[in-house]
Design goal:
Order of helices and strands: HHHHHH
Strand content: under 5%
Number of strands: 0
Helix content: 25-40%
Number of helices: 6
Oligomer: single chain
Length: about 140
Amino acid sequence: MTIQHRTVDIEAAAKLWRDDLPASQIAKRFGVSRNVIVGLFPWRGDSGKKSRAPGQAKTTRPRKLAPELKREPEIAATAYDAERLQSAKPLHHLSARECCWPLNTGGPYLFCAAETTGRYCRNHHARSLPKKNEGKS
């Protein structure tokens, strides 16, 4: 028991606790922190809280539904991808100068790892751009 617990008259505090007096008011009477009082007695749950009068329903705002996400079109593997699988690496093994194009679906994911000056090698960079006639409707 700490010094703060000894300054609290446990029996008097217990009576106030049973009378549903808030822990902060009990603590103020004994000159201790609220946490000391809460630590001395079992949790009351919602029994110590004042309840709302019948008929006073809490109004809730309607939730906005998250927009439905469109699935990205799957990019078909090419012969280049199959060739690159032999030297592919997991993402955490790639350096800043290696292509980070994913070569497979499902784990463990493997990435191209061809030497590059950007994010993707030339082949994958070209595949990442939309075709001229693809974007027009």
